[in-house]
Amino acid sequence: MSFLVDIYKTLSDAIYINLIKEDRYLLFIKGLGVSLKLTVYAAMLGVIIGLLVAFARMTKNKVLNKVASLYINLIRGTPAVVQLVIIYYAILGSSSLPKIVIASVAFGINSGAYVAELIRAGIQAVDKGQMEAARSLGFSYGQSMRYIIIPQAVKNILPALVSEFIVLLKETAIAGYIALDDLTRMGDIVRSRTFDAYTPFIIVALIYLYVTSILTYFLGKLERRMSISD
Amino acid sequence: MIKVVNLHKSFGELEVLKGINTEIKKGEVVCIIGASGSGKSTFLRCLNLLEEPTEGDIYIDGLSIKELGKDINRLRQRLGMVFQQFNLFPHMTVMDNVTLAPIKLKKQEPKVAQEKAISLLRKVGLPDKDHVYPNQLSGGQKQRVAIARALAMDPDIMLFDEPTSALDPEMVGEVLQVMQQLAMEGMTMIVVTHEMGFAREVADRILFMDDGIIAEEETPEEIFNNAKEERTRAFLSRVL
User: Fold this and answer.
1) Does ipTM top 0.95?
2) What is the DSSP letter of A215?
3) Structure confidence by residue, pLDDT tens digits, B98-115
4) Judging by beta carbons within 10 Å of its beta carbon (0-12, 13-18, 19+), is residue A14 exposed, middle or buried?
5) How far B230 CA sits from the closest chain A CA (Å)?
Protein backbone atom coordinates (compact mmCIF):
# COMPACT_ATOMS: atom_id res chain seq x y z
CA MET A 1 0.00 0.00 0.00
CA SER A 2 2.71 2.44 0.90
CA PHE A 3 4.11 1.69 -2.56
CA LEU A 4 0.97 3.06 -4.22
CA VAL A 5 1.00 6.10 -1.99
CA ASP A 6 4.58 6.78 -3.09
CA ILE A 7 3.61 6.65 -6.76
CA TYR A 8 0.66 8.95 -6.14
CA LYS A 9 2.88 11.43 -4.32
CA THR A 10 5.57 11.40 -7.00
CA LEU A 11 2.97 11.93 -9.73
CA SER A 12 1.13 14.73 -8.03
CA ASP A 13 4.42 16.44 -7.20
CA ALA A 14 5.50 16.18 -10.83
CA ILE A 15 2.21 17.58 -12.06
CA TYR A 16 2.33 20.34 -9.49
CA ILE A 17 5.78 21.64 -10.32
CA ASN A 18 5.47 21.19 -14.08
CA LEU A 19 1.95 22.48 -14.60
CA ILE A 20 0.53 24.34 -11.63
CA LYS A 21 3.46 26.11 -10.04
CA GLU A 22 4.00 29.59 -11.48
CA ASP A 23 1.11 28.86 -13.87
CA ARG A 24 3.39 26.76 -16.08
CA TYR A 25 0.41 25.19 -17.90
CA LEU A 26 0.12 28.56 -19.61
CA LEU A 27 3.50 27.97 -21.24
CA PHE A 28 2.25 24.73 -22.79
CA ILE A 29 -0.92 26.42 -24.04
CA LYS A 30 1.10 29.26 -25.48
CA GLY A 31 3.49 26.79 -27.13
CA LEU A 32 0.61 24.83 -28.61
CA GLY A 33 -0.78 28.08 -30.00
CA VAL A 34 2.52 28.84 -31.69
CA SER A 35 2.80 25.31 -33.10
CA LEU A 36 -0.72 25.41 -34.51
CA LYS A 37 -0.28 28.88 -35.98
CA LEU A 38 2.98 27.82 -37.57
CA THR A 39 1.39 24.69 -38.99
CA VAL A 40 -1.55 26.58 -40.47
CA TYR A 41 0.62 29.30 -42.06
CA ALA A 42 3.09 26.76 -43.40
CA ALA A 43 0.29 24.57 -44.73
CA MET A 44 -1.28 27.47 -46.61
CA LEU A 45 2.02 28.47 -48.13
CA GLY A 46 2.79 24.81 -48.84
CA VAL A 47 -0.45 24.34 -50.77
CA ILE A 48 0.18 27.46 -52.86
CA ILE A 49 3.76 26.41 -53.64
CA GLY A 50 2.66 22.81 -54.16
CA LEU A 51 0.03 23.80 -56.73
CA LEU A 52 2.47 25.97 -58.69
CA VAL A 53 5.24 23.37 -58.61
CA ALA A 54 2.92 20.49 -59.51
CA PHE A 55 1.76 22.32 -62.62
CA ALA A 56 5.30 23.40 -63.43
CA ARG A 57 6.27 19.74 -63.35
CA MET A 58 3.43 18.70 -65.62
CA THR A 59 3.74 21.34 -68.34
CA LYS A 60 5.67 20.71 -71.49
CA ASN A 61 7.98 23.66 -70.74
CA LYS A 62 11.38 22.05 -70.14
CA VAL A 63 12.85 24.89 -68.08
CA LEU A 64 9.89 24.99 -65.68
CA ASN A 65 10.07 21.22 -65.50
CA LYS A 66 13.72 21.22 -64.52
CA VAL A 67 13.34 23.98 -61.94
CA ALA A 68 10.38 22.19 -60.35
CA SER A 69 12.09 18.82 -60.08
CA LEU A 70 15.28 20.44 -58.80
CA TYR A 71 13.28 22.10 -56.04
CA ILE A 72 11.52 18.85 -55.14
CA ASN A 73 14.76 16.86 -55.05
CA LEU A 74 16.54 19.51 -53.02
CA ILE A 75 13.82 19.69 -50.39
CA ARG A 76 13.13 15.99 -50.16
CA GLY A 77 16.79 15.09 -50.13
CA THR A 78 17.80 17.24 -47.17
CA PRO A 79 16.64 17.30 -43.52
CA ALA A 80 13.96 19.85 -42.67
CA VAL A 81 15.95 21.05 -39.68
CA VAL A 82 18.90 21.93 -41.93
CA GLN A 83 16.62 23.79 -44.31
CA LEU A 84 15.13 25.70 -41.40
CA VAL A 85 18.50 26.74 -40.03
CA ILE A 86 19.82 27.75 -43.45
CA ILE A 87 16.77 29.86 -44.16
CA TYR A 88 16.97 31.44 -40.71
CA TYR A 89 20.65 32.27 -40.56
CA ALA A 90 21.59 32.65 -44.19
CA ILE A 91 18.55 34.12 -45.86
CA LEU A 92 15.91 35.71 -43.70
CA GLY A 93 17.63 35.91 -40.32
CA SER A 94 19.41 39.15 -41.11
CA SER A 95 16.07 40.87 -41.61
CA SER A 96 13.92 41.96 -38.71
CA LEU A 97 11.09 39.59 -39.57
CA PRO A 98 9.44 37.83 -36.62
CA LYS A 99 10.66 34.27 -36.11
CA ILE A 100 7.21 32.82 -36.68
CA VAL A 101 7.19 34.34 -40.16
CA ILE A 102 10.62 32.94 -40.98
CA ALA A 103 9.67 29.51 -39.66
CA SER A 104 6.38 29.58 -41.60
CA VAL A 105 8.27 30.37 -44.79
CA ALA A 106 10.80 27.59 -44.13
CA PHE A 107 8.17 24.96 -43.34
CA GLY A 108 5.99 26.19 -46.20
CA ILE A 109 8.86 25.76 -48.64
CA ASN A 110 9.51 22.33 -47.19
CA SER A 111 5.88 21.21 -47.26
CA GLY A 112 5.39 22.61 -50.78
CA ALA A 113 7.66 19.94 -52.24
CA TYR A 114 5.66 17.13 -50.67
CA VAL A 115 2.32 18.75 -51.53
CA ALA A 116 3.47 19.17 -55.15
CA GLU A 117 4.10 15.45 -55.39
CA LEU A 118 0.73 14.66 -53.78
CA ILE A 119 -1.05 16.85 -56.29
CA ARG A 120 0.84 15.41 -59.22
CA ALA A 121 0.17 11.85 -58.08
CA GLY A 122 -3.51 12.67 -57.52
CA ILE A 123 -3.89 14.10 -61.02
CA GLN A 124 -1.98 11.29 -62.66
CA ALA A 125 -4.08 8.71 -60.83
CA VAL A 126 -7.11 9.86 -62.84
CA ASP A 127 -7.60 7.38 -65.66
CA LYS A 128 -5.99 8.41 -68.95
CA GLY A 129 -9.24 7.68 -70.75
CA GLN A 130 -10.91 10.59 -68.96
CA MET A 131 -8.66 13.12 -70.67
CA GLU A 132 -9.11 11.35 -74.02
CA ALA A 133 -12.88 11.34 -73.67
CA ALA A 134 -12.90 15.04 -72.81
CA ARG A 135 -10.58 15.94 -75.69
CA SER A 136 -12.59 13.81 -78.12
CA LEU A 137 -15.69 15.88 -77.28
CA GLY A 138 -13.79 19.01 -78.27
CA PHE A 139 -12.64 20.35 -74.89
CA SER A 140 -9.23 22.04 -74.84
CA TYR A 141 -6.55 20.75 -72.49
CA GLY A 142 -7.34 23.46 -69.94
CA GLN A 143 -11.09 22.87 -70.09
CA SER A 144 -10.56 19.13 -69.72
CA MET A 145 -8.47 19.71 -66.62
CA ARG A 146 -11.02 22.09 -65.16
CA TYR A 147 -14.24 20.17 -65.79
CA ILE A 148 -13.08 16.56 -65.81
CA ILE A 149 -9.65 15.85 -64.34
CA ILE A 150 -9.31 18.20 -61.37
CA PRO A 151 -12.73 17.46 -59.81
CA GLN A 152 -11.74 13.78 -59.76
CA ALA A 153 -8.17 14.44 -58.63
CA VAL A 154 -9.38 16.45 -55.63
CA LYS A 155 -10.87 13.27 -54.21
CA ASN A 156 -7.47 11.60 -54.40
CA ILE A 157 -5.60 14.62 -53.08
CA LEU A 158 -7.66 15.87 -50.12
CA PRO A 159 -7.16 12.91 -47.75
CA ALA A 160 -3.43 12.81 -48.57
CA LEU A 161 -3.25 16.54 -47.90
CA VAL A 162 -4.72 16.12 -44.42
CA SER A 163 -2.10 13.42 -43.69
CA GLU A 164 0.55 15.86 -44.84
CA PHE A 165 -0.75 18.44 -42.34
CA ILE A 166 -0.48 15.91 -39.54
CA VAL A 167 3.11 15.23 -40.55
CA LEU A 168 3.74 18.96 -40.77
CA LEU A 169 2.42 19.62 -37.26
CA LYS A 170 4.88 17.09 -35.86
CA GLU A 171 7.65 18.38 -38.07
CA THR A 172 7.32 21.90 -36.60
CA ALA A 173 8.71 20.49 -33.34
CA ILE A 174 12.16 21.45 -34.64
CA ALA A 175 11.27 25.16 -34.67
CA GLY A 176 13.12 25.43 -31.35
CA TYR A 177 16.33 25.32 -33.37
CA ILE A 178 15.76 28.95 -34.25
CA ALA A 179 14.54 29.71 -30.71
CA LEU A 180 10.87 29.94 -31.66
CA ASP A 181 8.77 29.14 -28.59
CA ASP A 182 6.68 26.33 -29.99
CA LEU A 183 5.19 23.49 -27.94
CA THR A 184 8.33 21.34 -27.88
CA ARG A 185 10.56 24.23 -26.89
CA MET A 186 8.15 25.18 -24.09
CA GLY A 187 8.61 21.65 -22.78
CA ASP A 188 12.33 22.27 -22.78
CA ILE A 189 11.92 25.60 -21.00
CA VAL A 190 9.81 24.00 -18.28
CA ARG A 191 12.40 21.24 -17.93
CA SER A 192 15.16 23.78 -17.41
CA ARG A 193 13.19 25.38 -14.58
CA THR A 194 11.93 22.27 -12.79
CA PHE A 195 14.92 20.00 -13.43
CA ASP A 196 12.37 17.26 -14.14
CA ALA A 197 13.78 15.60 -17.23
CA TYR A 198 10.81 13.80 -18.61
CA THR A 199 7.43 14.92 -17.24
CA PRO A 200 7.34 18.08 -19.39
CA PHE A 201 8.02 16.06 -22.52
CA ILE A 202 5.39 13.47 -21.66
CA ILE A 203 2.95 16.37 -21.34
CA VAL A 204 4.16 17.70 -24.71
CA ALA A 205 3.80 14.27 -26.30
CA LEU A 206 0.26 13.87 -24.98
CA ILE A 207 -0.73 17.27 -26.36
CA TYR A 208 0.63 16.40 -29.83
CA LEU A 209 -1.10 13.04 -29.67
CA TYR A 210 -4.39 14.68 -28.75
CA VAL A 211 -4.27 17.14 -31.63
CA THR A 212 -3.15 14.58 -34.22
CA SER A 213 -5.87 12.19 -33.01
CA ILE A 214 -8.50 14.83 -33.72
CA LEU A 215 -7.04 15.41 -37.18
CA THR A 216 -6.87 11.68 -37.84
CA TYR A 217 -10.52 11.34 -36.86
CA PHE A 218 -11.50 13.96 -39.42
CA LEU A 219 -9.23 12.33 -41.99
CA GLY A 220 -11.13 9.06 -41.56
CA LYS A 221 -14.44 10.83 -42.02
CA LEU A 222 -13.15 12.64 -45.08
CA GLU A 223 -11.86 9.43 -46.65
CA ARG A 224 -15.20 7.73 -46.15
CA ARG A 225 -17.07 10.64 -47.69
CA MET A 226 -14.76 10.77 -50.70
CA SER A 227 -15.23 7.07 -51.40
CA ILE A 228 -19.04 7.23 -51.11
CA SER A 229 -19.52 9.86 -53.81
CA ASP A 230 -17.24 8.00 -56.17
CA MET B 1 -15.56 13.42 -96.39
CA ILE B 2 -12.36 11.90 -94.97
CA LYS B 3 -9.33 11.22 -97.08
CA VAL B 4 -6.28 9.47 -95.64
CA VAL B 5 -3.00 9.76 -97.53
CA ASN B 6 0.09 7.71 -96.75
CA LEU B 7 -0.52 7.75 -93.00
CA HIS B 8 2.36 6.55 -90.83
CA LYS B 9 2.54 6.34 -87.07
CA SER B 10 5.47 5.19 -84.94
CA PHE B 11 5.78 4.80 -81.20
CA GLY B 12 9.51 5.21 -80.67
CA GLU B 13 11.16 2.49 -82.75
CA LEU B 14 7.93 0.61 -83.32
CA GLU B 15 6.15 1.47 -86.55
CA VAL B 16 2.46 0.72 -86.07
CA LEU B 17 1.00 2.28 -89.20
CA LYS B 18 2.99 1.82 -92.38
CA GLY B 19 1.21 3.87 -95.00
CA ILE B 20 -2.59 3.92 -94.89
CA ASN B 21 -4.55 5.24 -97.87
CA THR B 22 -8.31 5.31 -97.97
CA GLU B 23 -11.36 7.48 -98.34
CA ILE B 24 -14.60 7.56 -96.42
CA LYS B 25 -17.74 9.08 -97.92
CA LYS B 26 -20.64 10.78 -96.24
CA GLY B 27 -23.21 8.31 -94.90
CA GLU B 28 -20.89 5.36 -95.23
CA VAL B 29 -20.48 2.73 -92.52
CA VAL B 30 -16.95 1.35 -92.55
CA CYS B 31 -15.84 -1.48 -90.30
CA ILE B 32 -12.17 -2.05 -89.60
CA ILE B 33 -11.23 -5.62 -88.77
CA GLY B 34 -7.93 -7.38 -88.21
CA ALA B 35 -5.86 -9.12 -85.57
CA SER B 36 -4.74 -7.47 -82.33
CA GLY B 37 -1.74 -5.25 -82.95
CA SER B 38 -2.52 -4.72 -86.62
CA GLY B 39 -2.98 -0.97 -86.03
CA LYS B 40 -6.78 -0.70 -86.19
CA SER B 41 -7.23 1.38 -83.05
CA THR B 42 -4.19 3.53 -83.74
CA PHE B 43 -5.58 4.36 -87.18
CA LEU B 44 -8.94 5.33 -85.70
CA ARG B 45 -7.27 7.45 -83.01
CA CYS B 46 -5.26 9.28 -85.67
CA LEU B 47 -8.48 10.42 -87.32
CA ASN B 48 -9.33 12.76 -84.43
CA LEU B 49 -5.70 13.34 -83.53
CA LEU B 50 -5.72 11.50 -80.21
CA GLU B 51 -2.55 10.15 -81.80
CA GLU B 52 -0.44 12.47 -83.89
CA PRO B 53 0.56 10.97 -87.23
CA THR B 54 4.31 10.70 -87.82
CA GLU B 55 3.95 11.07 -91.57
CA GLY B 56 1.24 11.51 -94.17
CA ASP B 57 -1.94 13.52 -93.93
CA ILE B 58 -5.64 13.31 -93.30
CA TYR B 59 -8.11 15.60 -95.06
CA ILE B 60 -11.50 16.25 -93.57
CA ASP B 61 -13.80 18.00 -96.04
CA GLY B 62 -10.69 18.93 -97.94
CA LEU B 63 -8.90 20.51 -94.98
CA SER B 64 -5.60 19.03 -93.87
CA ILE B 65 -5.52 18.19 -90.15
CA LYS B 66 -1.91 19.33 -90.06
CA GLU B 67 -2.97 22.91 -90.67
CA LEU B 68 -5.60 22.94 -87.96
CA GLY B 69 -3.57 24.18 -85.01
CA LYS B 70 -6.04 25.35 -82.36
CA ASP B 71 -8.99 24.46 -84.57
CA ILE B 72 -8.43 20.84 -83.60
CA ASN B 73 -10.92 21.31 -80.76
CA ARG B 74 -13.55 22.51 -83.21
CA LEU B 75 -12.82 19.57 -85.51
CA ARG B 76 -13.18 17.09 -82.67
CA GLN B 77 -16.66 18.47 -81.97
CA ARG B 78 -17.62 17.10 -85.38
CA LEU B 79 -16.11 13.68 -84.72
CA GLY B 80 -17.89 11.78 -81.97
CA MET B 81 -15.87 8.99 -80.37
CA VAL B 82 -16.90 5.94 -78.39
CA PHE B 83 -14.23 4.07 -76.45
CA GLN B 84 -13.76 0.46 -75.47
CA GLN B 85 -13.61 1.43 -71.78
CA PHE B 86 -16.64 3.81 -72.04
CA ASN B 87 -14.76 6.63 -70.24
CA LEU B 88 -17.87 8.16 -68.77
CA PHE B 89 -17.17 10.92 -66.26
CA PRO B 90 -17.70 9.15 -62.91
CA HIS B 91 -18.20 12.33 -60.89
CA MET B 92 -21.23 13.42 -62.92
CA THR B 93 -24.72 12.08 -63.42
CA VAL B 94 -25.69 10.58 -66.75
CA MET B 95 -27.50 13.83 -67.57
CA ASP B 96 -24.40 15.93 -66.87
CA ASN B 97 -22.23 13.53 -68.84
CA VAL B 98 -24.43 14.07 -71.87
CA THR B 99 -25.03 17.82 -71.51
CA LEU B 100 -21.59 19.06 -70.36
CA ALA B 101 -20.04 19.45 -73.80
CA PRO B 102 -23.08 21.03 -75.54
CA ILE B 103 -23.49 23.53 -72.69
CA LYS B 104 -19.82 24.47 -72.34
CA LEU B 105 -18.69 24.20 -75.96
CA LYS B 106 -21.78 24.98 -78.02
CA LYS B 107 -23.13 27.42 -75.43
CA GLN B 108 -26.51 25.72 -75.50
CA GLU B 109 -29.07 26.74 -72.90
CA PRO B 110 -29.05 24.05 -70.17
CA LYS B 111 -32.76 23.52 -70.73
CA VAL B 112 -32.30 22.94 -74.45
CA ALA B 113 -29.34 20.61 -73.85
CA GLN B 114 -31.31 18.63 -71.27
CA GLU B 115 -34.29 18.17 -73.56
CA LYS B 116 -31.95 16.94 -76.26
CA ALA B 117 -30.26 14.62 -73.75
CA ILE B 118 -33.59 13.11 -72.72
CA SER B 119 -34.46 12.36 -76.31
CA LEU B 120 -30.99 10.86 -76.94
CA LEU B 121 -31.24 8.72 -73.81
CA ARG B 122 -34.63 7.52 -75.00
CA LYS B 123 -33.08 6.69 -78.34
CA VAL B 124 -30.39 4.50 -76.72
CA GLY B 125 -33.03 2.85 -74.53
CA LEU B 126 -32.23 4.52 -71.19
CA PRO B 127 -34.99 7.09 -70.72
CA ASP B 128 -35.09 6.86 -66.91
CA LYS B 129 -31.39 6.86 -66.05
CA ASP B 130 -30.65 10.57 -66.38
CA HIS B 131 -30.16 11.24 -62.63
CA VAL B 132 -28.01 8.12 -62.04
CA TYR B 133 -24.20 8.04 -61.66
CA PRO B 134 -22.19 5.87 -64.07
CA ASN B 135 -21.09 3.38 -61.38
CA GLN B 136 -24.72 2.34 -60.95
CA LEU B 137 -24.98 1.26 -64.59
CA SER B 138 -24.09 -2.03 -66.27
CA GLY B 139 -21.39 -2.09 -68.95
CA GLY B 140 -23.92 -2.14 -71.76
CA GLN B 141 -25.80 0.79 -70.25
CA LYS B 142 -22.56 2.75 -69.79
CA GLN B 143 -21.65 2.27 -73.42
CA ARG B 144 -25.08 3.40 -74.56
CA VAL B 145 -24.74 6.53 -72.43
CA ALA B 146 -21.31 7.09 -74.00
CA ILE B 147 -22.94 6.91 -77.43
CA ALA B 148 -25.60 9.43 -76.33
CA ARG B 149 -22.86 11.69 -74.97
CA ALA B 150 -21.05 11.67 -78.31
CA LEU B 151 -24.28 12.23 -80.26
CA ALA B 152 -25.18 15.24 -78.09
CA MET B 153 -22.58 17.27 -80.00
CA ASP B 154 -24.36 16.53 -83.31
CA PRO B 155 -21.25 15.03 -84.89
CA ASP B 156 -20.93 14.46 -88.62
CA ILE B 157 -18.96 11.29 -88.10
CA MET B 158 -18.94 8.71 -85.30
CA LEU B 159 -15.79 6.77 -84.46
CA PHE B 160 -16.18 3.53 -82.48
CA ASP B 161 -13.08 1.94 -80.95
CA GLU B 162 -13.99 -1.67 -80.14
CA PRO B 163 -17.20 -0.55 -78.43
CA THR B 164 -18.25 -4.03 -77.32
CA SER B 165 -14.89 -5.60 -76.41
CA ALA B 166 -15.10 -4.74 -72.70
CA LEU B 167 -18.69 -5.98 -72.35
CA ASP B 168 -20.09 -9.19 -70.94
CA PRO B 169 -21.44 -11.27 -73.83
CA GLU B 170 -25.10 -10.77 -72.91
CA MET B 171 -24.68 -6.99 -73.20
CA VAL B 172 -23.08 -6.87 -76.63
CA GLY B 173 -26.42 -7.08 -78.43
CA GLU B 174 -27.99 -4.00 -76.85
CA VAL B 175 -25.02 -1.82 -77.89
CA LEU B 176 -24.82 -3.22 -81.43
CA GLN B 177 -28.54 -2.62 -81.83
CA VAL B 178 -28.12 1.09 -81.02
CA MET B 179 -25.25 1.30 -83.49
CA GLN B 180 -27.23 -0.45 -86.18
CA GLN B 181 -30.11 1.98 -85.73
CA LEU B 182 -27.65 4.87 -86.01
CA ALA B 183 -26.29 3.41 -89.25
CA MET B 184 -29.76 3.11 -90.70
CA GLU B 185 -30.41 6.77 -89.96
CA GLY B 186 -27.52 7.59 -92.27
CA MET B 187 -24.76 8.46 -89.77
CA THR B 188 -21.25 8.24 -91.15
CA MET B 189 -19.55 5.63 -88.99
CA ILE B 190 -16.10 4.12 -88.66
CA VAL B 191 -16.11 1.09 -86.40
CA VAL B 192 -13.14 -0.92 -85.17
CA THR B 193 -14.68 -4.22 -84.18
CA HIS B 194 -14.27 -7.92 -83.56
CA GLU B 195 -18.00 -8.48 -84.11
CA MET B 196 -17.95 -10.11 -87.54
CA GLY B 197 -21.73 -10.55 -87.58
CA PHE B 198 -22.19 -6.81 -87.13
CA ALA B 199 -19.58 -5.99 -89.76
CA ARG B 200 -21.17 -8.33 -92.28
CA GLU B 201 -24.66 -7.03 -91.69
CA VAL B 202 -24.20 -3.29 -91.19
CA ALA B 203 -21.01 -2.24 -92.98
CA ASP B 204 -21.00 -0.77 -96.45
CA ARG B 205 -17.33 -1.54 -96.68
CA ILE B 206 -14.79 -3.47 -94.66
CA LEU B 207 -11.13 -2.60 -94.20
CA PHE B 208 -9.02 -5.58 -93.27
CA MET B 209 -5.84 -4.38 -91.60
CA ASP B 210 -2.71 -6.45 -91.19
CA ASP B 211 0.70 -5.35 -89.93
CA GLY B 212 0.09 -1.61 -90.24
CA ILE B 213 -1.48 -1.45 -93.67
CA ILE B 214 -4.91 -1.97 -95.21
CA ALA B 215 -4.46 -5.38 -96.73
CA GLU B 216 -7.87 -5.56 -98.33
CA GLU B 217 -10.78 -3.17 -98.70
CA GLU B 218 -14.08 -4.50 -100.01
CA THR B 219 -17.80 -4.93 -99.49
CA PRO B 220 -18.77 -7.42 -96.75
CA GLU B 221 -19.92 -10.01 -99.32
CA GLU B 222 -16.58 -9.93 -101.08
CA ILE B 223 -14.53 -10.05 -97.87
CA PHE B 224 -16.49 -12.84 -96.21
CA ASN B 225 -17.19 -15.01 -99.25
CA ASN B 226 -14.55 -14.18 -101.74
CA ALA B 227 -11.45 -12.62 -100.10
CA LYS B 228 -8.62 -12.11 -102.53
CA GLU B 229 -5.78 -12.02 -100.00
CA GLU B 230 -4.54 -15.18 -98.37
CA ARG B 231 -4.05 -13.39 -95.02
CA THR B 232 -7.65 -12.13 -95.04
CA ARG B 233 -8.88 -15.68 -95.50
CA ALA B 234 -6.51 -16.93 -92.79
CA PHE B 235 -7.74 -14.25 -90.34
CA LEU B 236 -11.41 -14.94 -91.07
CA SER B 237 -10.99 -18.68 -90.68
CA ARG B 238 -9.52 -18.04 -87.23
CA VAL B 239 -12.30 -15.73 -86.01
CA LEU B 240 -15.41 -17.17 -87.64
Assistant:
1) no
2) H
3) 999 999 999 999 999 999
4) middle
5) 36
